[in-house]
Amino acid sequence: MLKVLRRLDADYRPTYENRANYVELVNETVAEMNGETEIVHGSKWDTSPLTKETWFGHWENDTGYWLIITDAIGRTIRVHRSGDSMPEMTNVVLSPDSQVLKFSEGDQWNHTVTLVNKYEATHEWRNAKSDQVWRTESLHKLVRATPDMKHVTQVCNQSADDFGTQP
């Protein structure tokens, strides 16, 4: 239902002359909410918060293992993992709903990363030969602080020399 209401809000752009087809938009919204009309994935009505771009960035587990996921010109997505040589993963596939990312690491590991939300994912490692799950872990997307976040968390202007002295 939220998806449908987001789309209605995004599409409603009133002007004095046409009132932005409000009646038609509301009728379409009601039909979608009642299940009379299907929302087609990828259409302008699909306002899913998850897209290919959701994946781009630095993802890390609680022990410091990380993945860097970037856009690749001519390919869907590039994935590198932590380690000495930062190997690039192969066979990278993103699900049509942008919720699941699968890739291989040589002929040893197959990985499946499933989004929980835009900032958390579940990472499953499978042995490529036996198809047995080796490990499942949570990944968290590292996010750069916005100017508003920085402003709220600023420290006072105290120099290092001021520490340890009594007033």
Report on this model:
With 167 residues, this protein is of the alpha+beta class. It has two domains: 47 residues, no CATH class; 93 residues, Beta Barrel (Lipocalin). The protein is built from three helices and eight strands. Strand 7 and strand 8 form a beta hairpin. Helix 1 runs antiparallel to helix 2. The longest helix has 12 residues. The model has no long low-confidence stretch (mean pLDDT 80).
Q: Could you list the spans in which at least 5 consecutive residues all have pLDDT below 50?
A: none
**How many angstroms does the end-to-end distance come to?**
59 Å
Rough outline: flat
Query: What is the residue-averaged pLDDT?
Result: 80
Summarize it:
With 167 residues, this protein is of the alpha+beta class. It has helices spanning 2-11, 22-33, 147-152; strands at 57-60, 66-72, 75-81, 90-94, 100-105, 109-117, 120-127, 133-141.
